[in-house]
Structure formats: C-alpha cells, structure tokens
Design a protein that fits this description.
By secondary structure, the chain is an alpha/beta fold. The protein contains 16 helices and 20 strands. Among the domains are: 154 residues, 3-Layer(bba) Sandwich (FAD/NAD(P)-binding domain); 99 residues, Polyamine Oxidase, Chain A, domain 2 (Alpha-Beta Complex). Strand 10 and strand 11 form a beta hairpin. The radius of gyration is 22 Å and the shape is globular. The structure holds flavin-adenine dinucleotide.
C-alpha cells in the first residue's frame, strides 16, 4: 500500500534483519521511519565479524548464518536484487554427511544420499517413493515428526529426520510445529515434497560478497535512518493510539511502534503497560546455541568445504559442523575454517562444554582433522525460538492482545529461517497499517 498521501510516523525497535526489513518495506511504502538498535552495529545475528588469522591476516566469522538459501522468485531474492547484492559466489559445495551409527554417510538431503541412507531398508525406501500419492494433511498445528512420517514414512521420520531438523532448527522434530517451516506446507499444497519441490522452482545457496552481514549492512546503509547504540528502555501510551519511546537520553513520539525484537526483549518492554501480551511473549520458549569456530591445516578432499549433521542423540549435544570452501574470502588462505554447533533443545554432555571435549567429539566423525591453530567460541543465547505445536494460535493471541499502534515481528512470529522471515515481513508490510 502506498502511503505517501497519509504517512504514518513509525519507530522500529531492533536492527536485526527483521527490523531492517520492516523499516525498508515501510519506507518504500512512503512512511517516515526511524530504527533504534541497542548494539553498536546493526544486523543482530546476521553479522560478519572480523577474526584475523594467526599472523594477523584478514579473516572473518559469521555470527549467525554462513549462507543464505534464496528461492527463485521469493521475497529474499527480491530484496537482494533491489539492494544490488546479486552475483554472489555460491556457498560451500563440498561433501555433505550424516553422522550415524558411528560413521559418516552421504547426507539424506540429496537424492543420492536418500538412496544410500542408513537404517531405512527396502520398505522404507519404497515408502518414500510413494510420497506424491499421499494426500495433504488437515492439522495446521501438526508436529514435524508427524508431518514427515505421514509424507515420507516412519523410517525416514525416525532414522533421518532428527539430524536434518537438529541441523536447521536445533530441536527434535516432535517438539516443533510444521509452522516452524512454512515452506513445507506450501510444497504440500503444490503436490507434495517431491513434486511440489520440483514445481516450486530453483533454490540456490549464496553468500553476499563480504559475508551474510553485508545484507544487513546494505539495508542499514540504504535506509539511512538506523541509529545504533540506541536501546529502547520504555514505552508510553499516548491518546489516539500514539506512542512515546524512551531511550537512555532521548524520547520520541510515533504513530506506530514496531517491536522487531526477540520475544523476551519485547516482553520486557511491554510488561509495565501491556502485561497480557508481555506474558504471552515471555512464554514463547527460546533455546541457546553454542558455536565454536576453529581453524585447522587443510584436509585433502575438503577444498570445497563440507557439511556434517549428527544423528541425535548420538551427538550427545553435538549437532553438526560446517566448513568454508578453501577459496572463501571470509577465511584465511591456507587454513580450513569450521563452525561447530552444539546445544539448542538438546542437552550438552559435560565433557562437551569446553573446546577439548568438543574437538574430541568432532574427531570421532572427522578423524582427518588436525589440531586447531585458532579457536573461538561465540555463544548464541536465546538465539532460536522453539516453535512448538500450537505456535500459530499463540502468535494470533499475541496480535490480538497488543494495544493499537504496537506491532511485533521476528523469527518467533514468522520462523527463524531468513527466507521465511523475509517473506513474512514483506506480507506484513503490505497489510500495514491494516494488519497487525
Ligand atoms: C548460529 C546461528 C546460525 C543461524 N543459521 C541460519 C541459517 O543458516 N539460515 C537462516 O535462514 N537462518 C539462520 N539463523 C537464524 C537467523 O539468523 C535469525 O532468525 C535472524 O537473523 C533473526 O533476526 P531478527 O532481526 O528477528 O533477530 P535478531 O538478529 O536477534 O535481532 C534483534 C535485534 O534487536 C536488538 N535489540 C534487543 N533489545 C533491544 C532494545 N531494547 N532496543 C533496541 N534494540 C534492541 C538486538 O541488539 C538485535 O540487534 C541462524 C541463527 C544463529 C544464531
């Protein structure tokens, strides 16, 4: 909706991708917007941080995603194209493995891996091939285990799915709602995961030149109204559904305020004046992720990077690892750069709390790996929302309970995957100020 004749003055709180995308769409629609970010830099989890090599060589690590999955014709592709971020080199293309029953197998996320997948048997493989004949489900709050068991069979759901879901959402499939991965429902509506996937068009994995953080930085640069180091401390309701936002040393008024904040931070701000939505937001569970970055001598055969997912609970908290390709400009030439992730909704065994234990666990799956020359931990507290069955109904209740003029966006509303987040925010902005 173009609002140039009747602009609403909006303050967006939170300069992660959610806030940046919301501000970008609202400004495109003609609304005067300003964005407050508590941290010194915008981006939230989507930041590419400097991590010099052992001799001080330039190098980086990704705080959150290492690459973006871009669906052709999707919202993320539109944003990256409009920002002029096209033409990025692809993400790592090396081997993809599933660690299960003590050894590495080809990842079941590829057709070859599916054919060779461990633990399925002939019956399980035939059951998967029958997927296009399975009718669509009716339960909008189905859990991911039930969804995949229905579509691809119990064998897939028990033997392969847990590692795939742990690698993306860091939680067991039975604890997650299908709403955590909205694209699955879209594929089912198009004829199933196999046919729908073919019909939905191409997807590619890419990395903006300079890293994933470039996406956030490009949004912030184009917006020109992003104020870092400006945490919102309190909200005050004014007559007529208007709002006053209090920072450390300034106060601003707005017709609408967008809380593009993690649910716990949004709950904190709302508690004094809107306890009902604050309570609902605070009740949305979040998980901590522990991430270790390490650099090692190169390993022959891994020049194009690798990906490893570990079948829970075999990993005992270790969910997987992923490496940059050797020519990835974010890494340091001559060194293999890996990110290892642990935790989420899985308990981490005490021997995996510190690097020596994590390295020992990694070596069980990657015996080729030599001692690291550099190690760094970047913890991600409350990084992932746990979108449980029934999540959509909770989100609706939050929307209904929010006072007029307040909006809440974020990974816990639209799904933590950046393509879902981008699509959700684009649709939300099209309905603004009519939608919630
Ligand atoms: C390790 C890791 C790996 C990931 N990998 C992938 C992946 O491969 N693919 C994918 O699609 N997604 C991935 N994600 C998820 C994705 O990064 C997130 O879903 C997304 O970045 C969330 O953006 P957001 O803006 O909603 O939240 P955030 O990034 O958390 O941003 C919220 C912002 O609000 C600010 N803030 C908080 N309180 C206040 C306040 N009072 N006032 C002002 N500002 C405030 C914070 O400083 C922060 O900048 C990953 C996440 C992590 C942590």
């Amino acid at each position: 909706m173009d609002s140039r004749n009747n602009p609403t003055r909006i303050i967006v709180l939170g300069g992660g991708l959610s806030g940046l995308l919301a501000a970008w769409h609202l400004r495109e629609a003609g609304h005067p917007v300003e964005l407050w970010e508590a941290a010194p830099r915008p981006g939230g989890w989507a930041q590419t941080l400097p991590w010099p090599g052992p001799q001080g060589e330039p190098g980086c690590l990704e705080r959150g995603p290492q690459a973006l999955r871009v669906v052709c014709g999707g919202a993320l592709e539109r944003v990256t194209r409009e920002l002029g971020l096209n033409g990025q080199p692809p993400g790592s293309k090396g081997p993809r493995w599933l660690g299960k029953a003590g050894r590495r197998h080809p990842s079941p996320a590829t057709p070859w891996g599916l054919l060779k997948a461990p633990g399925l048997g002939l019956g399980g493989r035939f059951r998967m091939l029958a997927e296009p004949l399975v009718p669509g489900g009716r339960d909008p709050a189905e859990d991911l285990h039930t969804f995949f068991a229905r579509r691809l069979g119990e064998g897939f759901a028990w033997e392969l799915l847990p590692a795939l879901v742990a690698g993306v959402l860091a939680a067991p499939p039975e604890r997650l709602s299908i709403e955590a991965l909205p694209r699955l429902k879209q594929l089912e509506a198009r004829g199933g995961l196999l046919l729908g996937g073919l019909r939905a068009g191409r997807e590619r994995t890419c990395v903006p030149v300079g890293g994933v953080g470039t996406l956030a930085q490009a949004l912030a640069d184009q917006l020109g109204c992003v104020f870092p180091d400006r945490p919102a401390r309190a909200l005050e309701s004014l007559p007529g559904g208007r709002w006053r936002v209090h920072g450390d040393s300034l106060t601003r008024e707005a017709d609408a305020v967008v809380l593009a904040l993690p649910a716990p931070a949004a709950a904190e701000l709302l508690r004094p004046m809107a306890p009902a939505p604050a309570g609902l937001l605070a009740a949305l569970p979040h998980m901590d992720l522990r991430v270790w970055h390490s650099r090692h001598a190169p390993v022959p055969g891994w020049e194009r990077g690798f990906g490893l997912l570990v079948h829970p609970p075999e990993g005992r908290g270790l969910l997987g690892a992923v490496a940059f390709a050797a020519d990835d400009p974010r890494g340091v030439p001559g060194l293999l750069q890996i990110r290892t992730y642990l935790g989420g909704a899985y308990a981490v065994e005490p021997d995996r709390e510190a690097w020596p234990g994590v390295f020992c666990a990694l070596r069980q799956w990657l015996p080729e790996l030599g001692e690291p020359v550099q190690v760094r931990e970047e913890s991600c507290p409350a990084a992932f929302p746990l979108l449980e069955p029934g999540h959509g109904a909770r989100v609706e209740r939050i929307g209904e309970a929010l006072p007029p003029g307040l909006h809440w966006l974020g990974a816990a509303r639209f799904g933590s995957g950046i393509p879902d987040l981008t699509a959700g925010i684009e649709a939300w902005a099209e309905g603004f100020p009519v939608g919630s």
